[in-house]
Structures are given as C-alpha cells and as structure tokens.
Write a structure and sequence with these properties.
Strand order of the largest sheet: 5-10-6-7-8-9
Strand content: 15-25%
Order of helices and strands: EEHHHEEHHHHEEHEEEHE
Shape: globular
Radius of gyration: 18 Å
Largest sheet: 6 strands, antiparallel
Structural class: alpha+beta
Oligomer: single chain
Distance between the termini: 45 Å
Length: 228
C-alpha cells in the first residue's frame, strides 16, 4: 500500500472524508475544506508530502479537485473511505468489548491495527460483537447513518446557553483530550447544560450530570450534543 511519511492511502481518504463534513472526528463546524495544508496538519506530515499523495489519489480516481482546489472524494473514494471508517470503529469495539482496553486507548490501537484485519475478518468480528450500533466514542458504526445524524448535532461550545443536551459522540483526533473526556465523565449519554462563558476567559461554564464546572472551549469544541 502506498505511503507518504508513514501514512497510507486509506489514512488520507479517511482524513478527507472527515474534513468534508461540518461535523467529524477532526475539526467540527468550521467549514474547513480538505486542502493540502489542512490534510497535512491533521496527519502531521509536510504540505509537500500531502500534496504529493493527493495527486496520487487524483490519478487513481479516488479524489478530484473542486473549484478552490480542495480534495473531494469521488464515488470510488467515498466508498473506500467509508469502508475504512467502518473497519476502524468495529476494531475499536473489539478492543473495548473483548480485549479490555479503555475507550480512549481503543482509538490509538485501532489506528495501528487498521491494516492487520482483512474485510472478511472484520465481518466475523462484527458478527461476534452482535453488530454494534456505535463505536466506543458514540459514532455510528455504519457511516451512511453518520451524516444524517450529524444534522441534529452541535458542538457543546455552540449550544444555546441554558439549553439542556445529551452528549452523543466525541472527537477522537486529540488523544490527550480524548483521555480527558473519559477521566472527567464526559462520555456519550451524559446530560449537559451550557451556562455560558465567563467574561474574558476561554472556558465555558457547564452543568455535567447535575454538577456545575468549567470546561475549556477547546474541549467543548470536541463534544457533540443533541439538544433536548
């Protein structure tokens, strides 16, 4: 499998897939397009390496360029990216449900194991897991459900003050932040209320499971909620 600075074609397709939508595992609600600089930032590679791989993906018919030179997945690219996303989420459930890893740990190890399991193995694992609906972080296992569901979600930071909501999925791109979510009980299914932002600060005041507390705005941008 072709790689650029340690990242495979599938890594790039997965990144482009998430950057194409207003809510995803990387950077929600910003309207960011999948340009070479943004892809490079998310994968931790040079812009030149990202540009080289995007050209290769375009040549292979997996990506095409939009009006602003952004990378857009072709139908073939979308199908492959969704398969990669689904595999990742099933592996995460395997790691938590069978192997005893924490939800935060499962994301890192699933990235490492992505190329290890064949599609046939993934289907066997999925059957043994009882066809789970969601990964440990709240994202639907089946990607086609994801975008329809995301239309009803907002980042906690964008919730109307005083409005109650329920945490649905969590951003996974920042491993340290993901661990913090779980350590502090900010998990899918938790009830939250945004009270507001203190004057001159970068923290938000929220009520989590009945207790008032501050949350950094950076963290609140990675917690996606459905308003009650």
């Amino acid at each position: 499998m072709a790689r650029a600075q340690g990242h495979s074609v599938d890594d790039y397709l997965e990144t482009i897939y998430f950057l194409a939508f207003p809510i995803g595992e990387y950077r929600p609600a910003t309207g960011t397009t999948a340009i070479a600089a943004r892809v490079a930032e998310m994968l931790g590679v040079s812009r030149a390496s990202a540009g080289e791989m995007l050209k290769r993906l375009e040549s292979d018919g997996l990506v095409e360029r939009g009006d602003q030179k952004e990378a857009l997945l072709t139908p073939a690219g979308t199908e492959r990216a969704e398969r990669v996303v689904r595999k990742h989420r099933i592996i995460e459930r395997f790691l938590t449900d069978f192997m005893g890893y924490t939800a935060a740990e499962s994301h890192v190890h699933a990235d490492e194991l992505g190329d290890t399991f064949t599609d046939e193995m993934i289907e066997r694992i999925n059957e043994r897991l009882g066809r789970p609906d969601r990964c440990p972080h709240g994202w639907p296992v089946e990607p086609e459900r994801e975008q329809a569901e995301n239309a009803d979600l907002v980042a906690l930071a964008a919730l109307e003050p005083g409005r109650a909501a329920e945490i649905v999925p969590l951003a996974e791109h920042d491993g340290d932040l993901l661990h913090w979510f779980y350590d502090d009980g900010l998990v899918p299914g938790t009830s939250v209320v945004l009270l507001g932002a203190p004057a001159g600060g970068d923290e938000l005041e929220v009520v989590v499971a009945g207790a008032e507390r501050p949350i950094a705005e950076r963290a609140a941008l990675g917690i996606y909620v459905r308003a009650s």
